[in-house]
Amino acid sequence: MKPSETLHRTAAVPGAGGPDVLLRGQNISRRWGGLLALDKVSLALARGSVHAVIGTNGAGKSTLINILSGEIEPSGGRVELMGQDVTGWTQPRRARAGLGRSYQRNTIYPSFSVLENCRLAAQASTQKPWLFWQEAQRCEASLQAAREAAGRSGLAPLLDRTAGLLSHGQKRQLEIAMCLATAPDVLLLDEPLAGMGAEETERMLALLAELRPGHAILLVEHDMDAIFRIADCITVMVNGCVIATDTPQAVRSNPLVQAAYLGEEH
Question: 31-73+190-261 architecture in CATH?
Fold first, then answer.
């Protein structure tokens, strides 16, 4: 695939609605003392689409993804997962209900194998305390989920490799594999391309394109070339506010976005 090519995408529907919306944030606000980090931010993630959130440092992107995942509570607004109000739910409960996320920094277990990392993620999402006599390492359901997730992420040949010995790009793939092992419908991916070279970026974009049909994907990323290739819809944030939510083509030509973020070269 040539760098200039656009990965196949479905038709974008800004502010997606309808029955395929899996995760929705409505008028989400967050205050830290006197600082308003998010000011009534709304967005919707539909199955079969990649929704990118962009903005400069301090725009509120990380705060937004942390609220959507359940790590922090909003000061106002509402979060819906599969049409259900989950605003008061903890992160583990949201994860068990079908929400997976990755982080800016690697959160793998470096001394464990690729398979063990994925197995632990799968096991955490399907805990069976009543089977206390069964060795966790022999839980066939968790092992099968782990193998499938690693395979989908392109890591099948590396199941026995110690995670800490993987390349940077492979570690990011492993993080997504660990998400997939929990069988999520929604993926919140925080800068999955950070620190990647061109070849690793291509592999990750191909993986996201493969995952798109069965998932709703929120992508927070600074690589604008990659964003315009993979995203179906882009939300642009400045100082905690949304200044645009539209198709990549419309965002690219939006004068407000150009002035606030993209610059003339885009």
Answer: 3-Layer(aba) Sandwich (3.40)
